[in-house]
Amino acid sequence: MSSSNLRGAATTRSSNGEDYEYNYVVIGGGSGGIASAKRAASYGAKVAIVELKALGGTCVNVGCVPKKVMWSAASMAEMLRHDMHHYGFPGGPEVAAKLNFSKLKQARDAYVRRLNGIYETGLTKAGVDLYRGFGTLVNNHTVRVSSTDLQSETPTVSLLNSKYILVATGGRPIFPPGEGIREYCISSDGFFEMNELPKVAVVIGAGYIAVELAGVLNALGAEVHLAVRKQRALREFDTMLSEEIDKAMVHAGIKIHRFTNGASKVELDTNGKKIVTFHNGDVIYGADVVLMAPGREPNIDGLNLDLDFEYNTENLNLEPLGVKIGPSKHIIIDEYCNSSVDSIKSLGDVIGNVELTPMAIAAGRRLADRLFGGMLDAKVSYENVPTVVFSHPPMGTLGLTEDKAVAKYGRDNIKVYLSKFSNLYYGIFDVNPDEKPKTAMKLICAGVEEKVVGVHVIGMGADEMMQGFGVAVKMGATKADFDSCVAIHPTAAEEFVTMGAWGLSSPATGAKVSPLNGAPAADPTLKSGL
Predict the structure, then answer these.
(1) 488: which residues sit within 8 A by CB, 6+ positions away?
(2) Cβ of 282: how many Cβ atoms within 10 Å?
């Protein structure tokens, strides 16, 4: 809805008698912002959302969704290259090499555009006003939207007055300092702009984005170099996971450059290829693409927040509003998404707390429940959030790592269950058993009741098995609760409910009604009169 459509719009009145054009203005049309806006509108709030770029944010446009498409394509390539002939189908490297990268990109991008349209239609159906432009905070209750019409270079400015403002602007990839790094490298965003598969790719970073994209490029047929600052990637994950994915990447042919301490410069040779020099003196020659993935930073430039430190102040040069920002540039909030300014809320990647799309969606909905749905104590928990890394093979993680569990509860209070095996999928492969891909699992239990505080898995199907175990852990499941669930055979997931000496763990349950020792399932509480 254009600003001209709103000049006669009805105003809303706050409890102290102030009049506002909107109850809720959301800056940022990503997953969290859209979820919060639609939930607020469902309660009858008058809502507007401001977004300059394509709707859906990082996840839909340059993150989770197109990444999963590429991961799926890469998984197919691996199956064609390594697996098909074991099952009697034609396959091999020459078949996998027939990838039409341009067709894959076109189909992926068309799917993303379709999702963009679905998001816009959803906002329209929910009654949320969409403003296309860049949102800036004018004061604690006003957002200025600056946009440029495609037919005119003259900016159009709209002022949106609102009782509450949500800052859900997400994050963006960062480039470290260094000669030629910005000029000759791409970010994870640039990965989705590639029109052809590079012959040689250098991926720099040790986080999940670097691992995922290195795996995709390698599986699709590129020669991949992964450069990490220290010994290996994913050091913040459980040691079992980081060690196993390191072995898997090496086995898959990814060349890992260790202890590089990061790139110092990138330059072009006489053939237009990239030369990457690292701080430890190592050099990689002949790269077609250098993908920089050292991390991300929050999108707060131009918002007119209170920026207490030089890095942000020099970028914004705007009147501060008093919103506190942390040293990492993330907006500081409390457990209810409140910033230091009462009318300004924030959530998602811009706050830096569990930077996952479903986390932002849940936080956005709960915030709207609290502000407009009468649920005064509504909030989300940032504990025991399951997540998956779409590596090759995929990995899932939930709760505490073993090191963190020991630090929190003490070694004497921790019991760890481990399992490592080859998936039945590889059973008929005529190869040395040691060469077959492995699945590794770890269950971390704490206390005399053996409460499950950590679940970690790497291997085929890890991405699809974590959600259910996430529910169990969220409900306080114990090892005995896991054992009480009869295994689904033959699956990889059954290992989680058959670990150790099955059925002999401490007979304690985290359930409201115990399922142990063959107890009958609890009946639901029925509505009166039924």
Answers:
(1) 494
(2) 16
Per-residue H/E/C for 191-257: HCCCCCCCCEEEEECCCHHHHHHHHHHHHHCCEEEEECCCCCCCCCCCHHHHHHHHHHHHHHCCEEE
The pLDDT score that the predictor gives to residue 519 is 80
pLDDT of residue 115: 98
Instruction: Say if CB 20 and CB 106 are below 8 A apart.
Output: no
| Tokens standing for residue 408 | 């929190």
Residue 484's SS3 state is helix
Partners of residue 56 on adjacent β-strands? 30
**Closest C-alpha to 417, from 331, 343, 479, 484:** 479
Tell whether the model's pLDDT for residue 11 goes beyond 60.
no
Q: Quick one: what percent of the chain has pLDDT higher than 70?
A: 91
Q: Which residues pair with 157 in a beta bridge?
A: 146
Mind telling me the catalytic residues?
A: 489
pTM metric for this prediction: 0.91
CB 462 within 8 A of CB 439: yes
- 196-215 core/surface letters (b: 16 or more CB in 10 A; e: else): ebbebbbbbbbbbbbbbbbb
73 contacts 104 by C-beta, under 8 angstroms:
yes
More confident residue, 306 or 218: 218
Q: How many degrees, rounded to 5, is the angle at CA 354 between CA 206 and CA 204?
A: 15
- What is the pLDDT at residue 512? 80
R_g over Cα of the chain: 26
User: What's residue 311's pLDDT?
Assistant: 31
Q: What is the pLDDT of residue 307?
A: 42
Rounded CA separation 394/384 (Å): 19
Helices (H) and strands (E) in the chain, counts: 14, 23
> For residue 388, what are the β-bridge partners?
396
Q: What is the C-alpha separation between 377 and 91, in angstroms, rounded?
A: 57
What string of DSSP letters covers 11-48?
A: PEE-TTS-EESEEEEEE--BHHHHHHHHHHHHTT--EE
Mean pLDDT in residue range 232-249: 98
- In this model, does residue 471 exceed pLDDT 50? yes
Listing DSSP states for 42-73 in one string gives HTT--EEEEESS-TBHHHHHHSHHHHHHHHHH
Measured distance CA(333)–CA(336) in Å, rounded: 8
3-state secondary structure 154-205: CEEEEEEEEEEEEECCCEEECCCCCECHHHHCECHHHHCCCCCCCCEEEEEC
Instruction: Indicate if the pLDDT at residue 122 is higher than 60.
Output: yes
User: Which of 355-364, 429-438, 511-520 shows the lowest per-residue confidence on average (mean pLDDT)?
Assistant: 511-520
For the residues 187-210, what does the mean pLDDT come to?
A: 98
- How is residue 332 annotated by DSSP? P
Tokens 């446009």: give the residue.
Answer: 61
Give the pLDDT confidence of 272-304 residue by residue, as tens digits: 999 999 999 999 999 999 999 999 999 988 777
